[in-house]
Amino acid sequence: xxxxxxxxxxxxxxxxxxxxxxxxxxxxxxxxxxxxxxxxxxxxxxxxxxxxxxxxxxxxxxxxxxxxxxxxxxxxxxxxxxxxxxxxxxxxxxxxxxxxxxxxxxxxxxxxxxxxxxxxxxxxxxxxxxxxxxxxxxxxxxxxxxxxxxxxxxxxxxxxxxxxxxxxxxxxxxxxxxxxxxxxxxxxxxxxxxxxxxxxxxxxxxxxxxxxxxxxxxxxxxxxxxxxxxxxxxxxxxxxxxxxxxxxxxxxxxxxxxxxxxxxxxxxxxxxxxxxxxxxxxxxxxxxxxxxxxxxxxxxxxxxxxxxxxxxxxxxxxxxxxxxxxxxxxxxxxxxxxxxxxxxxxxxxxxxxxxxxxxx
Amino acid sequence: xxxxxxxxxxxxxxxxxxxxxxxxxxxxxxxxxxxxxxxxxxxxxxxxxxxxxxxxxxxxxxxxxxxxxxxxxxxxxxxxxxxxxxxxxxxxxxxxxxxxxxxxxxxxxxxxxxxxxxxxxxxxxxxxxxxxxxxxxxxxxxxxxxxxxxxxxxxxxxxxxxxxxxxxxxxxxxxxxxxxxxxxxxxxxxxxxxxxxxxxxxxxxxxxxxxxxxxxxxxxxxxxxxxxxxxxxxxxxxxxxxxxxxxxxxxxxxxxxxxxxxxxxxxxxxxxxxxxxxxxxxxxxxxxxxxxxxxxxxxxxxxxxxxxxxxxxxxxxxxxxxxxxxxxxxxxxxxxxxxxxxxxxxxxxxxxxxxxxxxxxxxxxxxxxxxxxxxxxxxxxxxxxxxxxxxxxxxxxxxxxxxxxxxxxxxxxxxxxxxxxxxxxxxxxxxxxxxxxxxxxxxxxxxxxxxxxxxxxxxxxxxxxxxxxxxxxxxxxxxxxxxxxxxxxxxxxxxxxxxxxxxx
Lengths: 360, 504
Description:
The structure holds 2 protein chains of 2 kinds.
Chain A lengths: L6 E5 L5 H25 L4 H14 L1 H26 L7 H18 L4 H30 L3 H21 L32 H20 L1 H11 L1 H6 L4 H28 L5 H4 L3 H11 L4 H25 L5 H21 E5 L5
Antiparallel strand pairs in A: 1-2
Helix pairs in contact in A: 1-14, 2-3, 2-13, 3-7, 3-10, 3-12, 3-13, 4-5, 4-6, 4-10, 4-12, 5-6, 5-10, 7-8, 7-13, 8-10, 12-13, 12-14, 13-14
Chain B lengths: L1 E10 L2 E11 L4 E5 L6 H8 L7 E6 L2 E3 L4 H6 L2 E4 L11 H6 L12 H15 L14 H14 L4 E5 L7 H16 L3 E6 L2 H7 L2 E6 L2 E7 L5 H9 L17 E11 L5 E11 L3 E5 L6 H8 L5 E8 L2 E2 L5 H6 L2 E4 L14 H5 L10 E2 L2 E2 L1 H14 L16 H13 L5 E5 L7 H16 L3 E5 L3 H7 L2 E6 L2 E7 L5 H8 L4 H5 L1
């Protein structure tokens, strides 16, 4: 397709941070407008809808804390995904890695018999290890056999989902739960402290923020980060300079999967205090985190901001349902629109479009 | 007749064309000569409607004309063959040719008419192609013929060729030049973009030299010669004959014995290659591409496994080492595909320059990269190798070909390598950059490194090498002293005649 003649399209050298930020905000704005059409179609004025969403997210203490607690898993998964995406590994499997991390933590909480003070640290370690393992399998398959990472990571999600389903309906079904498909409640020593009566399990939040900073240092300042970037940017040059594609891919996915696993630990130990149905453990955090990481332009520090933004949107789902009486699924539509416009906007970063100078 | 008047084209940070006047007569082959980045391609993209000029105008047969798109250019019968072909590999020749045209009736294609027209053009200009062959099955030379055919099918009578020979073998170049002659004899006009002086002399009627976005001169080819064109192009005298001190050969550095290597398709690429390389000498490797040179350079740098045999550097067998181990032994590698293999386009010059040394002090302490050390290293390298860029944070993808090769050399040659494997080090570079890179390689030789120089450019091999090894079909046809070698003998050996027979 050619641009109309009054427009000029030119390649940009390297987009400046200002351009990147501006284009990202523009994408979100356009997505808001597009989603507004849906609100309008339901007979709700988009302006009122967005007003209610903002009020719902920030207007009350409950709203604010509910937003923050949703940001925690998005932050952990999102930071991990930036690392995988840097290595050009398309990890669509944070959801499964989160669930398997939650499962491992549950196993430790209910069946390890460890003394109280050790319980939570070991749960986090086990969650990290399980998520890392879940991520390392597709990484090894891709690096050794060239098997498509999108498909394997996606399929591993279903394996994790059904493992959880099987456990809560089968061997781990809680005898005290009167036939419901839950495990037993965690012992008190396996439950994360929260801020006051909110559901913000602050230890996980602290871990998330610290890891975001560490991930930034890892990528930008260490030799492993350098290797991850070289592998992601040009695998041929990586081979040329003797960097092991296998080691780096697995390393990136151990970190990526491990962080998603930690998110899973936070959800069961901080919110639910038991393992329950997969869609309750994670409300699609692993998938939303893909957009979170992408909007952050694969910068782990920026994930702190973008995870919060998407937490607002997820919280907005509650508002939509409760105060506007619209289906919760509109949130997914909205997420999809943001990703759509975000990817579409990439072209604006590579090209500059301006009005053509007038010709005589 | 085409006239370009006062064409100005600015890109962010550069003026690609700065007031260019150019006049091209019907029925001539007009060369646009200039170094990389002189503005040749930009100018032709303006003529072909891909860019709009910021100032100036285009006159076709005296009429001021605006060319807003390639479609409009084609309507004015201007066609362009790009340096990188724009063909769909899985489609057939005829499908590619009619791509984007309204052929046939309604939604249906009419290949009978297409084939007839292709046949007519093929016969007229001697362009032999099978219209039903798939593009991926064709050689590069044949693909180029499809591109030319595409333009002719659209009834172009002005043909812009952007560096058409850069991807061709010498035989294919000859064939292309013959085709161009036929086209011109038939009344077509050809604009030929190049930076190779030999081609200008060989093919053109007239030549316009561009430098830094401006026209330096337009002269009839018959009234000029290579040295004066080179001077116009570079802006200073160019030494064609390098000052080369005699080689002081040292100890034996590399001992290659009975090396067998398979290519990507699992077929033998090297079939028992043996030679020695000494310190302080340049051993040239000659051969038509695809006779095992690529595999030889890869096996010596750890990028490919040997099937059998050994290549001993001191006490280490390179055939059994990884790329990283070999680099740590002091082996430098200037790869054939310098952008694809040798650089990370989106990373900075600074980071590209430590691509091989980032694990070691001073660049890495306790696994942390030392940005200051990397920065100092980059500043030193950019000065020593005259890598032209605003600063060391500039992304490598923004560099010109010559600058990229200088960056690769700066990286590979730092820390005094003992063995340098250089594959086509000056391929596609302009005269100035070529001269500099040859000087650098000679400097390494004189500092005592052993250099394996793989090249398809016989002049380069004869200029630089001390000895020349000829590969044919994965076998060594012989090793000759460069002083005594002549093009004819080498040519025969490259075609498969063993040395003894040549001399007999």
